[in-house]
Amino acid sequence: MLQLPKQVTIREVGPRDGLQNQSEEVATADKVEWINRLSETGLRYIEISSFVHPKWIPQLKDAREVAGAIRRDPGVTYAALVPNRKGLGAAIEKNVDEVSVFMSASETHNQKNINKSITETYPVLEEVVQEAKQAGKTVRGYVSTVFGCPYEGDIDPEAVFRVSERLLEMGIDELSLGDTIGVADPKQVDEFLTAMSGRLPFSRTAMHFHNTSGMALANVLVSLNHGITIFDSSLGGLGGCPYAEGASGNLATDDLVHMLSRMGIETGIDEEKLADAAAYIQEKVHGELPSHRVQIANRKGG
Amino acid sequence: MLQLPKQVTIREVGPRDGLQNQSEEVATADKVEWINRLSETGLRYIEISSFVHPKWIPQLKDAREVAGAIRRDPGVTYAALVPNRKGLGAAIEKNVDEVSVFMSASETHNQKNINKSITETYPVLEEVVQEAKQAGKTVRGYVSTVFGCPYEGDIDPEAVFRVSERLLEMGIDELSLGDTIGVADPKQVDEFLTAMSGRLPFSRTAMHFHNTSGMALANVLVSLNHGITIFDSSLGGLGGCPYAEGASGNLATDDLVHMLSRMGIETGIDEEKLADAAAYIQEKVHGELPSHRVQIANRKGG
């Protein structure tokens, strides 16, 4: 009864979305080494950092150094978040392959996160997208709080559609729809994607789930069943959203790849190399990583 | 696109399947108090213990004491596992409402777990089922290693069907199909249930998933979509299978109820009372319980 695709593309967001929420500092050299190891797993996309002001996210203040030091695999797209033209300038200077802009489907979350209303955010992002395109970069657009907001609660799917449509009109190449606080349930995802079918370009729409309540893989399954083939995830389940209470736990790349592999869906990723890269970053951060793969490996003493 | 039922029945197996794998001893009085608290959550079925020889499962050696001491809520079915006529005798003497027999779809797992071949097991269970029925008890039949065996690997769905059919012919009232080592993936569950549709009585078939690799809720979702409405789970995710490496983690009742509740599916269970009962047993066992609900509560300092 399930309709499943043959192939799935994974966007590894751990070095950015994972590390930005770590309480302890990870050395620049360790980030570089981790990204180099991720490049060898078969992943074709790595979001390496965020060119935001260090005041906002001190954990990623070394974005320039990281971008300058990593080895570039020609088959891998190295991407970074940019909040504005200044960040874009730095990203271009450091020659990242793709930049990501971001905003929220929730007015309050957008205001608290970006310090602007949704309407005020559009022209800022439009300029960034245009300049990025002129510089020959592809652009990704993140929409957050798609399935719920820590301040506003439920979010109208039409609000998500309006923001997504504007980003697509600006010329983004890929849309990423984020369950920022990890509240999405499979029925909600099913209804949302049913409502968006034929209106959003699913072939270049990624789903970005958090595993806060353990439903991320179920939500992935529903999305696959709707023809979505791009997913964001963070190796080991590193990270989450620091602004939302109890919202830890990005969907773990290793758990996602394991499920897809079990179902015969190709990702091009080597699970053993992925486990090695997870073990590497496990040593650099405080506490056991939440992914099931890491926990199974730790129990085996591996 | 999802077809979801309006109601789901949950079989709480924590006091048996959860506690049987605890390395530290939980006092009989604490088990009794936990079961009494579970009775107040809205759960309508609690598997309280196993009447097996203490040599096999020393953690449950107090099955008689537990069965004798718990408060009986007339709306709750109190069940227990029985491996043979001797166990059944004790269960009848202690007046449990329902007994469960068990065997494996894997020849090797059955041999190692029950010390008999599958063929040798049938007459033993047949006698137990008949005697239980004569004593006015309902009977549940567990089939283990349905989606994979630690010794044999893949299990032919037809082997599962043959064992299930025999148990149904003996007169069991409900069948429970167990993913003993937690390897089932959603595609496998989908294909299995498609193959069993119209052959097994889904209205009295329960699925028993483990969350070893984080796929349990996705597997539940697929099962719901096939019309399965009975699920086994263990509060807090307590327990697993001690005989299978890396197979910790029963599906957590609290996470299951949370997902079902978010999807508007009724279980009759009060999530707050469930959280209280989870917090109670959390204090009696070593280490943090794996359920997402418990972990969110712990992070909030609740």
Automatic annotation (TrEMBL), chains A, B:
GO process annotations (BP): ketone body biosynthetic process; L-leucine catabolic process
Single annotated GO MF: metal ion binding
Keywords for this protein: Lyase, Metal-binding
PROSITE patterns found in the cross-reference section: PYR_CT
Keyword Secreted appears in the UniProt entry: no
Lyase keyword on record: yes
Domain Pyruvate carboxyltransferase: 8-275
Matches recorded under SUPFAM superfamilies: Aldolase
NCBIfam families (alphabetical): PRK05692.1
Family according to the record: Belongs to the HMG-CoA lyase family.
Descriptive protein name: Hydroxymethylglutaryl-CoA lyase
